[in-house]
Amino acid sequence: MNRLLLVEDDMATCMAISSFFANEFEILVKNNGFDFLDTIKEFKPQLVLLDMNLPGPNGLKLLASMKEHLHSVPVFMITVRSGEEEILKAFQLGASDYITKPFSLKVLEVRIRRWMQKTRSESVIQIGAAVVDLLAAKVTIDRSKTDLTQKEVLVLRYLIANSGQVLSREQFLDYAWGYDFEGTSRTVDNVILSLRKKLGDTNDRQAIIQSHRGLGYSLNLPELLK
Amino acid sequence: MNRLLLVEDDMATCMAISSFFANEFEILVKNNGFDFLDTIKEFKPQLVLLDMNLPGPNGLKLLASMKEHLHSVPVFMITVRSGEEEILKAFQLGASDYITKPFSLKVLEVRIRRWMQKTRSESVIQIGAAVVDLLAAKVTIDRSKTDLTQKEVLVLRYLIANSGQVLSREQFLDYAWGYDFEGTSRTVDNVILSLRKKLGDTNDRQAIIQSHRGLGYSLNLPELLK
DNA sequence: TTTCGTATGACACTTCCATGACAAAAGGAG
DNA sequence: CTCCTTTTGTCATGGAAGTGTCATACGAAA
Predict the structure, then answer these.
(1) 8 Å CB contact of A164 and B136
(2) Which CATH superfamily is domain A3-116 in?
(3) Which CATH number applies to B3-118?
(4) Which of A95, A167, B82, B136 is the most exposed place for a label (fewest CB within 10 A)?
(5) Of the candidates A91, A165, A212, which has its C-beta nearest B147's C-beta?
């Protein structure tokens, strides 16, 4: 699950955001700007929501100090003020987006998702006729539940995380078995096989887990955005 | 110079934007949504600013129809209305950003700049009428999708990586088959043949994959992304 | 022990693609 | 322009490699 660092001192906003995204992201809330860099290094968030007005160093200062060292982590600035100067400054310092209060949580969600380049990172996701809960390792299809084994969860998570892309058997082995594993390609095939069974997949041209001869497998969700 | 397509019926906004960006971008202004797709195909903008309220088809419709064919061009929606539904819809349809009037021209500028820097590293490429996704091993042309085989992916990747250059059959064989492969030249030809079919290519003077007698093949992209 | 997860091998089946044959096109020489 | 050669376009086909699937063996956990 993706990690989200929220740095915000207004309790109402904190509560709103963290409860709204609770199922989607692992959220760490900080109420001030102290120890900002250390927090990021430890928590390793995929994205940071950063308030402008904070006790301690203010948002722009934090952004500046952070972008010196950790260039790759995207930062969304959040603020009640929306002065042009400040917005420009924020973008100039490397902010990825700039959200003005009050804002819609749903809109914030799509902006975050778009930036993470992941359309779905929920733990519960619909795959064809099946509803998959990766955390609980369960598949529900037509009201009947099936458990997923460890390997099945790993393989499926990898498929979902890279949905649409063709993944080679080597990649699966590296991800789910470890780099030192000396397995045959049959090993991956069999996990795919059982996944297909549990997902009620068909293995034809409309298959959700598609085979690509000589390349690997890919997960093709029917309608990515409905 | 980067090209910017502005589709907007309010003259004041048009004037403001086009004069502000005159030195930075080559701007084409359209006052309505007619001939939208054709305009894009001819003008080949790096980015589109699209108003929601237009004479003719409205902004969301245009966005939807466009994203079916031209994935790679980022679109910023511009509007006076800012209903949550509409914003969500726009993002779901593939909008890259959503700007609410009135807006600061300078802020618009940094948002545009930031997005132009971001779009360079995409795995989805437009080749003629086809949209190619090498990671997904897939070609979309007129809404119908075709899978690419292993050899097709390799050859096409090599063509794209060296687009514009003439590549000999030997080079293809070395890259996609391996140095020790003892194949005939027909082997490469057949892959090129099937690629042309899947890409909807013509094999004439305007062909995208061009033959060079005695030399090899080259990929000629119409200078959309360089 | 029994049970479950997992890895491996066997076998049938499917698909790709290398090959060769021939047609079509391009280029060069006369 | 015409003929001839060389190169390329295109198709059919057989073989071989990749894959689906099942049965089985092993080990860990209950």
Answers:
(1) yes
(2) Response regulator (3.40.50.2300)
(3) 3.40.50.2300
(4) B82
(5) A212
